[in-house]
């Protein structure tokens, strides 16, 4: 049987076709491998990942915009920022001259200015004391308990000749000081209203009130009084204790300063209400006290 051999040209064409087929298959295989690798790289990982972003924290409120805290239970209704703004608009003097001051210029002591049947002293005692016992007249406080804003102490009040003075009513802005800072030009009605304004009055420990006397914010605050008390306990005279406490950072130690923020705020508000000036030293100490607000 005879077989015819394909011509050389046909054999060459067959070889070329074979080579091209092999190359095509190889390209397909390589492409599939590349595709598989890229798919596995881009697939999301099932393993948990930790976040490098720190959890966000609510920033603490700046003291200047915080409400004035109330240690006395009677809120001022102002923010620290508002108090600072009011302070910046008060008149400022460098000298306090209360010559010509007389207590009688502010009317009789403790009158019934609000016509509720009780004089101002008893009104303030009723407001500031707890667990009070009131006389049958509905006004006179016979006994009660004071949580003193100036010292933080608890004082049991009993009315009596030798005991009533343990709790006294303090004018936060003293009358004689107000005389020097604007009250000397007021009419009698305004001075009487100022002397009996509950905003300017607090029932306080008698010794603290006596120590304060007619001092302003420049030389007396509850924190300064706390410092004075501690210094006197070490043997200092009152004069030496005052000199020491007016030169140290009273808000950087262990002195009682819980009420100083509110004390400062009320001092400013009273001064604004009655258009009283303050001294440059008042301003410096008030600003320091307001920095303690939180």
Give an overview in words.
- The strands form three sheets. This protein has a three-stranded antiparallel beta sheet, covered by helices on one side. A two-stranded parallel sheet has the order 1-7. Strands 5-6 form a two-stranded antiparallel ribbon.
- By secondary structure, the protein is of the alpha+beta class.
- The protein has ten helices and seven strands.
- It has one domain.
- The longest helix has 35 residues.
- The chain is 40% helix and 11% strand.
Q: Major beta sheet, specifics?
A: 3 strands, antiparallel
Portion of residues within helices = 40-55%
Q: Total domains, how many? A: 1
Q: Taking Cα atoms only, what radius of gyration do you get, to the nearest Å?
A: 41 Å
Mean pLDDT: 85
| Structural class determined from secondary elements | alpha+beta
Number of helices: 10
Q: Would you count the extended β strands for me? A: 7
C-alpha end-to-end distance: 116 Å
